[in-house]
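Quick check before the chapter quiz. The format below is the same one you will see on the exam, so make sure you can read both the input and the output lines.
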Amino acid sequence: MRPLWRLALLLAPLGLLLAAPAWAQVRLKDVVTIEGVRGNQLLGYGLVIGLQGTGDQLRNTPFTQQSLAAMLERMGINVADARVQTRNTAAVIVTATLPPFARQGTPIDVQVSSLGDSKSLNGGTLVVTPLMGADGEVYAVAQGPVVVGGFQAAGQAQSISSGVTTQGRVPGGGLVEREVPVDLRSLESLRLALRAPDFTTAVRIEEALNGRFGAGSAAALDLGTVEMRVPPGYRDRLPSLVAQMEALQVRPETPARVVIDERTGTIVVGAQVRVEPVAITHGNLVIRVTESPMVSQPGPFSNGETVVVPRTQVEVDDQRGRRLATLPRATTLKDLVDGLNALGLAPRDLISVLMALKASGALHAELQFI
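Here is the expected output.
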């Protein structure tokens, strides 16, 4: 069998990628998450100031004007009767993820997205914005300069833009003000949630944990949950238990799946994909229409007019030269790769062939489109 890197070189012209081999050993921490140890989503509404005329138009976004007036009134400046026409302010929605076990004062990154008709947040500064959780309580406060990845430049006759300029990040701009209490010392068991639920993987995790901490320590409850009982010697040092669990090597089971991205023509074939013997023929009708107009000018001192004479050339190619190809039984990934390469198809044509193989029942895999 050829090494995987050689198979990848064979699949590169077809836009195919190889999935990781099913027999790969990975750490337990890369396969599961511990129930209760997770982040929490935070949301807030704020203002970005200091923009160079790329902020919201206050006449079109009244909520920006109301927020600006309310902020100034809290600072002792009354602008209720004044007409504020600044274009240096933008209303934004601020989002962040509160990490598990985050303590007060811990800095976190926040995401800033424009809410009004602002054209760019480049160069702006986010003013103090409270971030609330799903329960309505404030868990963090964000403030700082906004970092935008895109840019815009325009003149009188031309403009250029790159990336998205109406959203950005404030690295370390959020400070945790309220902690989410998680008491692991009172737990008598830990529940491990599989990132890719599978009965075979759950049983293998159970066997690995029982082999390390003793028989009966772990039990697979279903295809997505494994319960681990805390041994008596680890009741007061649960972090040590979790660290030893995460370091265990397990072999996750990979399903027979073909992932297809029609937009880019990318195809990822799993190692468990199998194909029965089948005959395939594939051809496309290609029509090319070429326009080559000519300009006909009248002779000197004549009363004629200059006209454009159309010239159209049409070419039709039905690709009748394609032969009927036989795809043998593919019992390994190498057999499947060699058979698909023998067809000599482009990536988008290969997507149609894979869909037809699935419909005929010859392809033993799940087709997943992304």
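If your answer matched, good. The chain is about 20% helix and 35% strand.
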